[in-house]
Amino acid sequence: MGGIDTGIIVAAIAAVGGVVVAWIKWRTDHEANSIAVLKVLVEEQGEQIDRLQERVDRLESELRGEKDYTASLRDHIYKQLPPPPPPHP
Predict the structure, then answer these.
(1) Which backbone phi and psi does 81 adopt, to 5 degrees?
(2) End-to-end Cα, the chain, rounded Å
(3) Which of 19-23, 26-30, 79-83 has the highest mean pLDDT?
């Protein structure tokens, strides 16, 4: 006989196939987990960006108010009006 038994060949092919299937499953699960983590990260960053944008908008509004008040104080001074200064908003 001298040849390799067919059962051994079938077993080897099945073993290699099992390893390949296990590797593909691990890889797919790993990628799915990575994608899920990235989605959560993007959502969290989006929420953080929204909060920062709200903060910037609020600060810009406050800065405009302070600039307007400063302009009214300067106007009061330039017109040499007596105290008290205009009330702070």
Answers:
(1) -80, 150
(2) 104
(3) 79-83
